[in-house]
């Protein structure tokens, strides 16, 4: 059976306030085209369909169109809710659209009720584990301690029990939205440690033929049978080096796995550049990033004037600016009190300015401003003392 594994669409999300709905629509066009051209027999979406619990209307409409197109293609689709989704909202109407071949699995209690598909070699049972927040599902799974490993482990025990009662030779696939140990995270995933230790060991999923994971945004194989598809688009600059793909998985008659990465459309490349402002503006090696979304880290000892405007003149899609000035080495043996000894307020303030600028102190105009500020504070203090 040929399966297309994807996840973390995050419909409605923006990239540093740049809207991505058009790019997300282009990805869904690509997904449907891949389904048709590569003879896909099942589509798996391992959570985080939306970016937030109450998504914007435009994102809901985009999702609705995608469901209609997948149903029209006649290819069964199995989806689970992720930690960004509202399971209750995403699952509305699940029983009705199930008849159209769109199978939403958002209720933890139903994790051991598979979608059963058939191919020339027999049955394939697809089990959906939505995101399991330990504090909310501990009673459902009757676990003695709250934690991700405990609840995912309990859910998988139910899966294995159901699978054991099925005909011999039934192949199995699990969709899960979780942080599996050994996975490489990025900056754009929401922290899930609120429910205890975030990660679960890959061994929790033993006993099934393929595990289609969602949550981490980089495509990666934890083992040959346990894989993250990653997000189809970059949602943070930490993903600048990601190759955004889906997994095209061929599940053989005996549970054998062959997996191929299918590249997703790239609306605009993402790049991080670093250096002094003039160097970045003049460096010919950065020409390849002219049309990229840019995060620029400036290392100038003194903050340049109008850095964003000057960067945008060369890199018009610069959307993030970070300052990390080159710093002069300091005496590591000197204590804070020693460094302040013998300095008045004005000198301490000037030393602070020099510190944050990497050694370049205030100019004459700035010294005047600092001096006036301290004078005003002293006047206020004197006035309050007199009033008492």
UniProtKB/TrEMBL annotation:
<keyword id="KW-0255">Endonuclease</keyword>
<keyword id="KW-0235">DNA replication</keyword>
<dbReference type="Pfam" id="PF12320">
    <property type="entry name" value="SbcD_C"/>
</dbReference>
<feature type="domain" description="Calcineurin-like phosphoesterase">
    <location>
        <begin position="1"/>
        <end position="218"/>
    </location>
</feature>
<dbReference type="InterPro" id="IPR041796">
    <property type="entry name" value="Mre11_N"/>
</dbReference>
<dbReference type="Pfam" id="PF00149">
    <property type="entry name" value="Metallophos"/>
</dbReference>
<dbReference type="InterPro" id="IPR004593">
    <property type="entry name" value="SbcD"/>
</dbReference>
<keyword id="KW-0540">Nuclease</keyword>
<dbReference type="InterPro" id="IPR004843">
    <property type="entry name" value="Calcineurin-like_PHP"/>
</dbReference>
<comment type="subunit">
    <text>Heterodimer of SbcC and SbcD.</text>
</comment>
<keyword id="KW-0269">Exonuclease</keyword>
<protein>
    <recommendedName>
        <fullName>Nuclease SbcCD subunit D</fullName>
    </recommendedName>
</protein>
<dbReference type="InterPro" id="IPR026843">
    <property type="entry name" value="SbcD_C"/>
</dbReference>
<comment type="function">
    <text>SbcCD cleaves DNA hairpin structures. These structures can inhibit DNA replication and are intermediates in certain DNA recombination reactions. The complex acts as a 3'-&gt;5' double strand exonuclease that can open hairpins. It also has a 5' single-strand endonuclease activity.</text>
</comment>
<keyword id="KW-0378">Hydrolase</keyword>
<dbReference type="InterPro" id="IPR029052">
    <property type="entry name" value="Metallo-depent_PP-like"/>
</dbReference>
<keyword id="KW-0233">DNA recombination</keyword>
<comment type="similarity">
    <text>Belongs to the SbcD family.</text>
</comment>
<feature type="domain" description="Nuclease SbcCD subunit D C-terminal">
    <location>
        <begin position="267"/>
        <end position="355"/>
    </location>
</feature>
<dbReference type="InterPro" id="IPR050535">
    <property type="entry name" value="DNA_Repair-Maintenance_Comp"/>
</dbReference>
């Amino acid at each position: 059976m040929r399966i297309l594994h994807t996840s973390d669409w995050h419909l409605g999300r923006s990239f540093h306030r740049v809207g991505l709905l058009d790019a997300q629509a282009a990805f869904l066009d690509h997904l449907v085209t891949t389904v048709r051209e590569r003879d896909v027999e099942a589509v798996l979406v391992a959570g985080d369909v939306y970016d937030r619990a109450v998504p914007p209307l435009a994102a809901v409409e985009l999702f609705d169109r995608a469901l209609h197109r997948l149903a029209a293609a006649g290819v069964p689709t199995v989806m689970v809710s992720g930690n960004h989704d509202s399971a209750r909202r995403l699952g509305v109407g699940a029983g009705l659209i199930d008849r159209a071949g769109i199978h939403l699995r958002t209720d933890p209690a139903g994790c051991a009720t598979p979608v059963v598909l058939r191919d020339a070699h027999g049955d394939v049972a697809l089990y959906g584990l939505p995101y399991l927040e330990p504090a909310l599902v501990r009673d459902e799974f009757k676990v003695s301690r709250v934690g991700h490993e405990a609840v995912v482990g309990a859910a998988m025990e139910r899966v294995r029990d159901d699978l054991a009662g099925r005909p011999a030779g039934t192949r199995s696939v699990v969709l899960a939205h979780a942080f599996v140990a050994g996975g490489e995270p990025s900056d754009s995933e929401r922290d899930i440690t609120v429910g205890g230790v975030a990660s679960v060991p890959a061994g929790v999923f033993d006993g099934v033929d393929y595990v289609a994971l969602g949550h981490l945004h980089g495509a990666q194989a934890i083992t040959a049978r346990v894989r993250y598809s990653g997000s189809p688009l970059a949602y943070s600059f930490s993903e600048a080096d990601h190759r955004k793909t889906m997994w095209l998985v061929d599940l053989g008659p005996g549970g054998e796995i062959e997996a191929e990465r299918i590249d997703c459309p790239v609306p605009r490349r993402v790049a991080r550049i670093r250096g002094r402002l003039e160097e970045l503006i003049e460096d010919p090696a950065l020409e390849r990033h002219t049309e990229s979304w840019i995060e620029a880290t400036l290392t100038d000892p003194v903050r340049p004037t109008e850095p964003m405007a000057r960067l945008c003149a060369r890199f018009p899609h610069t959307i993030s600016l970070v300052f990390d000035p080159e710093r002069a080495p300091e005496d590591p043996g000197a204590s804070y009190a020693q460094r302040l000894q013998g300095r008045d307020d004005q000198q301490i303030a000037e030393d602070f300015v020099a510190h944050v600028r990497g050694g370049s102190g205030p100019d004459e105009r700035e010294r005047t401003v600092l001096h006036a500020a301290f004078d005003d504070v002293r006047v206020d203090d004197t006035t309050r003392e007199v009033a008492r």
